[in-house]
Amino acid sequence: MSLKSFHIVFMLATLALSLFLTVWAYQEFARTQVTSYLAAAICAAVTSLAVLVYGRFFLKKLKHISYQ
Predict the structure, then answer these.
(1) Per-domain boundaries in the chain
(2) Cβ neighbours of residue 2 closer than 8 Å, sequence gap 6 or more
(3) What is the pTM of this model?
(4) For the chain (length 68 residues), average pLDDT per consecutive 10?
(5) CA angle, 62 as apex, 14 and 66 as ends, to 5°?
(6) How many whole angstroms separate alpha carbon 26 and alpha carbon 24?
(7) What are the residue ranges of helices labelled H in the chain?
(8) How far apart are CA 35 and CA 5, in angstroms?
(9) How far apart are alpha carbons 23 and 55 in whole angstroms?
(10) Separation of alpha carbons 53 and 32, rounded Å
(11) How wide is the angle at C-alpha 16 spanned by C-alphas 10 and 13, nearest 5°?
(12) CA 31, CA 1: separation in Å to the nearest integer?
């Protein structure tokens, strides 16, 4: 597995975990009305967006490098 492939897998795992945290924290906020859960949901959502933006930048920058 190349470094590029590993990087993409790692970004996808990070995205999946941050999306899971966003949903979980928001559900906990809706259930308990504790503002720290809302803050966690917002931070996780921002992280998800940042990973998406970074992933797009990464793929554009290294499009000429193979996945092998």
Answers:
(1) 3-61
(2) 65, 66, 67, 68
(3) 0.85
(4) 89 97 98 97 98 94 82
(5) 95
(6) 5
(7) 3-32, 35-61
(8) 38
(9) 21
(10) 32
(11) 15
(12) 43
For residue 11, count CB atoms less than 10 angstroms from its CB and return exposed for 0-12, middle for 13-18, buried for 19 or more: middle
Least Cα distance to 52 among 7, 2, 21, 14 occurs for: 14
Q: What tokens were used for 27?
A: 């559900």
Whole-angstrom Cα distance, residue 67 to residue 41? Answer: 34
Q: How is residue 7 written in tokens? A: 């990087």
Please count the residues of the chain. 68
